[in-house]
Write a structure and sequence with these properties.
This protein folds into four domains: 72 residues, Histidine-containing Protein, Chain: A (2-Layer Sandwich), CATH 3.30.1340; 69 residues, Roll (SH3 type barrels); 69 residues, SH3 type barrels (Roll), CATH 2.30.30.40; 147 residues, endopeptidase domain like (from Nostoc punctiforme) (endopeptidase fold (from Nostoc punctiforme)). The longest helix is centred in the N-terminal third of the chain and has 42 residues. α1 runs antiparallel to α2. The chain has a six-stranded antiparallel beta sheet. Strands 10-9-8-5-11 form a five-stranded antiparallel beta sheet. The chain has a five-stranded antiparallel beta sheet with strand order 17-16-15-12-18. It has 399 residues and is an alpha+beta fold.
Length: 399
């Protein structure tokens, strides 16, 4: 009987210790989760332009850190924070780009348009596109797909056929070389200067190639992968001249936007082959010398707020109009659509929905768009505004 009582006491003590230990373990785990979530919120609030996917295993006050990030500062902040808790760390985090990529950490778009997808497979959702000659960073590699980051910060996957990977020194050679920009809606690059045989590939509005030479009718050009060909001189211009002569105005924004009337809608598209709403606004501003954020929900964070009263009175031609669901007590504002104000007495704007077309906020206008008027959220002005979200190509190329 007495041994049984002693056994019960020992069991009770063991259970109490176990409960306290589990409680301490739970508190510690919650503390680590809180630290990790705080770092993620600070360094990677938008997963489209930042990578921070970190998790951990906690055993006997030892923390094994796993996952990946492209921010060395976020990673170091996490390590320092966990060390301050007196924990022993086993760090297995991948800091991208790593050895999987090798020394070719840069890439140039090698097709007329490259399709950038949400996951490393051809069946994945089209997230964005990039034009021929676009420079990108390579962050990761999986099978035949590369995870890249384009100049607008967008991170996603592209198949190996779309880009030409290279080392930094070769990228610098390309960046400093003389180039042309294609100004026609669409056309071809030919193998011979007679332009009557052997097409090398197609080329679309905004595509960039290295300049080699010229004659009266053609430019001789070179692709990132060193293929050489010829394009019609009437369909292109030297990039440096294009940038110098490209002065963005309200009128130039309107002219560019209207030049794309009828272009087809394509979810994830940012080219003349097809574009979504934000792809259209992005393309319009790109052809006026600016790189702006990719998605409507990102574009609304750029520029200067106009039209606080939502009455369209203070809008100017070229302003971006945003549409979606207004914020409520239990939900945040959701931006799902964007267009460009045309600034005339007909209260018209141009946007990509079904195709690129003009609509109006005036009930008396035959083009009246009641659906979008009811979900109008406000507008932003990009022209003439200095903003980290608006990259001017002239400044980047030091012209």
């Amino acid at each position: 009987m007495i041994p049984t009582m002693k056994l019960q006491k020992h069991l009770l003590l063991f259970v109490m210790i176990l409960v306290i230990s589990c409680k301490d373990h739970s508190l510690l785990k919650n503390k680590i989760i809180s630290i990790n979530e705080g770092i993620e919120a600070h360094f990677a609030p938008d997963k489209r332009v930042n990578i921070y996917d970190i998790n951990f295993d906690l055993k006997n006050e030892k923390v094994t850190i796993k996952g990946e990030t492209n921010s060395t500062l976020a990673h170091q902040t996490l390590l320092d924070s966990l060390k301050n808790l007196g924990l022993n760390l086993i760090d297995q985090t991948r800091i991208l780009p790593d050895s999987k990529v090798g020394d070719k950490k840069y890439a140039i778009a090698n097709n007329s348009v490259i399709n950038i997808r949400s996951k490393p497979k051809h069946s994945a959702e089209l997230g964005s596109q990039a034009l021929l000659g676009t420079l990108s960073k390579i962050l990761d590699k999986q099978g035949d797909f590369y995870r890249i980051q384009t100049p607008d910060g967008y991170i996603s996957w592209v198949d190996k056929g779309g880009i030409y990977p290279m080392r930094k020194e070769l990228l610098d050679v390309w960046s400093n070389s003389k180039k042309i920009i294609y100004t026609n809606t669409a056309g071809f690059v030919y193998e011979h200067k007679h332009l009557d045989q052997n097409i090398i590939s197609d080329i679309t509005l905004g595509g960039v190639l290295k300049y080699l030479s010229e004659d009266q009718k053609t430019y001789k050009v070179e692709y990132p992968d060193q293929r050489k060909g010829y394009i019609k001189k009437s369909e292109a211009i030297l990039l440096k001249d294009w940038l110098k002569n490209n002065v963005a105005t309200q009128e130039s924004i309107e002219k560019t936007a209207k030049s794309m009337l009828g272009f087809p809608y394509l979810w994830g598209g940012t080219s003349s082959k097809g574009m979504d709403c934000s792809g259209f606004t992005k393309m319009t501003y790109l052809l006026n010398g600016f790189v702006i954020p990719r998605d409507a929900s990102q574009q609304i964070n750029g520029g200067t707020i106009v039209d606080y009263d939502l009455n369209f009175k203070n809008l100017q031609k070229g302003d971006l109009l945003f549409f979606g669901t207004r914020a409520a007590a239990n939900k945040k504002q959701k931006v799902v659509h964007v267009g460009i104000w045309l600034g005339n007495d007909k209260m018209e704007f141009i946007h990509a929905s079904g195709n690129v077309h003009i609509s109006s906020m005036d009930k008396q206008n035959p083009l009246y768009d009641d659906f979008n008027k009811k979900r109008y959220l406000g507008s932003r002005r990009y022209l003439g505004v200095k903003d980290k979200n608006i990259i001017e190509l002239k400044e980047r190329m030091k012209l």
